[in-house]
Amino acid sequence: LHKIDQQILEIHEGKGDLPNIIEEQENKIKALENQISDNQIELEALNKNIKEYNIETDDFKSQIDKHNSQIYSVKSNKEYEAILKEIDYLKDQNDENAINLKNATQEKESINSNIEDYKIKIEELSLKLEDNKKELKETSALTDKEEKNLNSSKEELLKEIINKDFLSSYNEGNNKFNLS
User: Fold this and answer.
1) Mean pLDDT, range 55-71, rounded to an integer
2) Of 11, 17, 24, 90, which has the fewest beta carbons less than 10 angstroms from its beta carbon?
3) How far is CA 161 from CA 70, 74, 151, 154, 166, in A?
4) End-to-end alpha-carbon separation of the chain, Å?
């Protein structure tokens, strides 16, 4: 039984770190795909905000134009000052809106850039992953049949062993050294 476990362990060691490397690469690709998904959700929200900022900008401009045309038809200094205050207020609001629009646009560009970077990284990782899978497949092709035979021999031996205390003790020892 120990001899069979040793042979199985040698087969697993022959594969090297490829199974772990493949798993890490797959996890990195999934993480990057999740980042892209999260960024696309952010982009949707930013696009909505940008659209709202543009509508608000148009609204502020039309209100300012309306108030500017009203200046010529005022009849008192109080009306004139009230309209000027309203125009100043609208201009301040429009300036604040323009800053928000600029920030949202810059954030959108940054997110688009990040998405492109993530896509490039995914493409590079996918190529490496395919190479590693191919290498593991080639390595495994040589040993799969032997490993299956060894596992089936091991199962037959385990069925023949009557002493369950021995099996329990043997399995504990194997788990300590990661032989099973």
Assistant:
1) 95
2) 17
3) 102, 107, 15, 11, 9
4) 10
Structure tokens of 29? Answer: 């690709």
The whole-chain average pLDDT of the chain stands at 87
Apex 43 CA angle, 42 and 47, nearest 5: 120
**pTM confidence score:** 0.65
Write down the residue that tokens 């905000």 correspond to: 49
CB-count burial class (<10 Å; 0-12, 13-18, 19+) for 60: buried
Task: Tell me which residue of 139, 137, 128, 157 sits closest to 13, measured CA to CA.
Answer: 139
Q: pLDDT tens digits for 134-175?
A: 888 877 776 777 777 788 888 887 777 777 777 777 777 665
Would you say 36 and 150 are in contact if contact means Cβ atoms under 8 Å apart?
no
Share of the chain above pLDDT 70, in %: 93
Q: Contacts from 31-38 at CB under 8 Å and sequence distance 24+?
A: 32/118, 32/121, 32/122, 32/125, 33/118, 33/122, 35/114, 35/118, 36/115, 36/118, 36/119, 36/122
* Cα–Cα dist 121/32, whole Å: 8
Cα–Cα distance, 68 to 62 (Å, whole number): 10
Helices and strands of the chain, counted as H and E runs: 4, 0
